[in-house]
Design a protein that fits this description.
The complex is a heterodimer of chains A (about 475) and B (about 150). Chain A has about 475 residues and is mainly α. Chain A contains 15 helices and no strands. Chain A has a domain of about 325 residues: Cytochrome C Oxidase, Chain A. In chain A, α3 packs parallel to α12. The radius of gyration of chain A is 22 Å and the shape is globular. By secondary structure, chain B is mainly alpha-helical. Chain B has 2 domains: about 35 residues; about 110 residues, Cytochrome c-like domain (Cytochrome Bc1 Complex, Chain D, domain 2). In chain B, about 50% of the residues lie in helices and about 5% in strands. Chain B is built from 6 helices and 2 strands. Classes of the chains: A mainly alpha (about 475), B mainly alpha (about 150). Chains A and B meet through α2, α3, α7, α8 and α9 of A and α1, α2, β1, β2 and α6 of B.
Chain lengths: ~475, ~150
């Protein structure tokens, strides 16, 4: 898989390049997490296509992979590969921030393998009707315990590395805080409730407080790290604004959980609390987008890894549109009364996950790969092709879903049309979605091809770095 | 101009305050006096129905209380809309139920399980959903009391 692209540093000014290499050998662990991400992401897209074709009546796989299986696999793979990406990002970022090697590389590999085993076991089980059947939390409770052990091992490695390190930076602390809270918030999802209402109420403690709360801390941490590295802006400035952004996130996001409680059978007080605070949620994403663009404009423009910068700034902007604006579009109780439980939610979900989390994971992978492998492929046209094809494709998918959602709301909930009759009417929008998904998948295919072409981690990148530091 | 320590205070202070309010509102919502779900009507059969609902991942296609897969009909008011006998018949069908060609898995449930599912769906249909019950199933709204 290796090509003949020269190792970074050959012909470069070593003094300028000292921050553009892998500094610690244990950072190589991240590569294998990223590789697992690529594999699971590809599978997620395959199951997305199965769902898309089923929606236009082409469900030839129904007997083996019915829609509920495809859906559980599609969404759970997303969660698992994003968490794998966050873990890989942590294994890359924390040593550099703490200025020391990971406390145990072997345990990190044990954690990776056990994570993959639990993930594969869960996904396989879904094909044999073994699941919990709770949206996004379909993993059976028996496997939940293994997830907990796995995450504890991961946190142990990260926390020990951080606190044994030479420094504890704000970037590292915010990111680690996000990872610790994400682990703690998994627990309410493991409790059995007799009532569907209570079950749903606490399921959102996991799902909402993850994606509109603590995951934003992780995203903010990765974003801050990338901006420090890619723009050269002073760490103190970036980290100060990081606090403001994550502050806005929690200030609006925690009580914003209320927008999931409007119509599930709990008290009306959530109509007011959820309405007010979820309307404030776009502020955090707006701040993040402005912050990223401002730091880019303020910073140096000479970092060679332009494609990592594209993904980084892109994540900040698209997350504002997907999570912020499209979320706001149906978050007020008066609107949500009609859109709750329709394809409008799917429209928002796709663009929010894409912008906020997928793009930031692809950004850190794009940044880390040349440093881990020592191969300078970041200036290849393929990288830009992957960025634009996937982004335009996803935008097209979101527009198609949005149109289908609005039509569904109108036909079904205003004109009292039967659900299946309305679904027939919106079928054409899924044809458009599938076409756009093909463009999207081509872009991601090129991204994965580039990942493979980078080859495996090499110690040469580390050696060159040591030379660079010596020269500087 | 905002200093880094002030920004940190904003983050930590805002988080603690909003989280405490959130916990307070959760306790308030879960208080028996504020119950809108007719919790006292949750019988062993309803619990069994919920278990069957989850172990078959019905939410992967259908929606309930507005949450689910959006691939198959919303079931919050399905008993009002279709009637218990038809719901039972669909759950016990040996061939996939396929309205407009979109297939459901043929669960071939026994009488006991199908009855538990009906009881569960009946309980769901009686929850006060702050007005959503009128929207989620327009075909049944004539049957919903004012």
């Amino acid at each position: 898989m290796r090509d003949s692209t020269p190792i970074i540093g050959a012909g470069y000014d070593h003094c300028k390049q000292k921050n553009k290499h892998m500094k610690y050998k244990s950072q190589q662990v991240a590569y294998w997490f990223f590789a697992l991400c690529m594999l699971l992401f590809a599978l997620q897209i395959v199951y997305g296509f199965i769902m898309g074709f089923a929606r236009i009546g082409m469900d030839g796989l129904h007997d083996w992979i019915p829609f509920n299986t495809a859906r559980a696999v599609h969404t759970n793979l997303l969660v698992v590969w994003l968490l794998t990406g966050f873990m890989g990002a942590a294994y890359y970022i924390i040593p550099e921030e703490a200025q020391r090697e990971l406390v145990s590389v072997k345990l990190a590999y044990v954690q990776l393998i056990s994570l993959a085993v639990v993930g594969v076991a869960a996904i396989t089980g879904y094909h044999f009707n073994i699941w919990e059947g709770r949206k996004f939390l379909e993993i059976p409770r028996e496997l939940d315990y293994l997830v907990v052990i796995n995450v504890l091992l991961f946190l142990g490695i990260i926390l020990a590395t951080l606190f044994k390190g030479k420094r504890q930076t704000t970037t590292a602390l915010v990111m680690t805080m996000g990872l610790v809270f994400a682990a703690l918030l998994y627990l309410p999802g493991m409790i059995w409730f007799d009532s569907q209402v209570t079950d749903s109420f606490f399921r959102w403690w996991v799902v909402h407080l993850w994606v509109e709360g603590v995951w934003e801390l992780i995203m903010g941490g990765i974003l801050a790290f990338l901006l420090i590295k890619l723009t050269g802006v002073d760490r103190e400035v970036i980290e100060k604004w990081l606090y403001v952004i994550v502050g806005l996130t929690f200030l609006s996001g925690i009580l914003g959980t209320g927008h999931h409680y409007y119509y599930i059978g709990v008290n009306k007080i959530w109509l007011i609390v959820g309405g007010v605070f979820s309307a404030l949620e776009p502020l955090a994403f707006l701040a993040m987008a402005l912050f990223a663009v401002y730091m880019y404009r303020k910073g140096e423009k000479n970092h060679p890894n332009k494609i990592a910068l594209f993904w980084t700034i892109g994540a900040a902007i698209v997350s504002f549109i997907g999570a912020g604006l499209l979320g706001f579009a149906h978050t007020l109780p008066q609107t949500n009364l009609y859109t709750h439980g329709t394809l409008v939610t799917a429209m928002h979900g796709h663009y929010a996950f894409w912008g906020a989390y997928v793009m930031i994971v692809l950004a850190i992978i794009s940044y880390a790969m040349p440093n881990i492998t020592g191969r300078k492929r970041h200036d290849k046209t393929n990288g830009h092709l992957a960025f634009w094809l996937s982004n335009i494709g996803m935008l097209g998918m979101v527009v198609a879903l949005g149109v289908a959602g609005v039509v569904q709301v109108y036909l079904e909930r205003r004109l009292s049309m039967d659900f299946m009759v309305a679904q027939e009417e919106v079928k054409i929008h899924f044809v458009v979605m599938l076409l756009c998904a093909t463009m999207f998948a081509t872009g991601i295919g090129i991204y994965i091809y580039e990942f493979i072409k980078y080859g495996r981690p090499t110690d040469e990148a580390l050696t060159k770095n040591e030379e660079a530091v010596l020269v500087s | 101009m905002l200093s880094k320590s002030q920004a940190r205070t904003f983050f930590l202070g805002g988080t603690v305050v909003t989280f405490l309010i959130f916990i307070g509102l959760t306790i308030y919502s879960m208080a028996p006096s504020n119950d809108q779900s007719n919790h006292q009507n949750i019988t062993e059969q309803v619990i069994k129905g919920k278990h069957i609902w989850e172990t078959n991942n019905c939410m992967g296609c259908h929606a309930i209380l507005g949450e689910g897969g959006y691939y198959a009909p919303e079931l919050t008011k399905v008993i009002d809309r279709k009637g218990a006998p038809m719901v039972k018949a669909i759950l016990q069908s040996p061939i996939p139920w396929a309205p407009n060609g979109r297939k459901m898995v043929a669960y071939e449930m026994n009488d006991e399980d199908a009855e538990a599912m009906v009881e569960y769906l009946k309980w769901i249909g009686e929850i006060d959903l702050n007005g959503f019950e009128r929207i989620v199933s327009p075909l049944a709204k004539d049957k919903i009391k004012d």
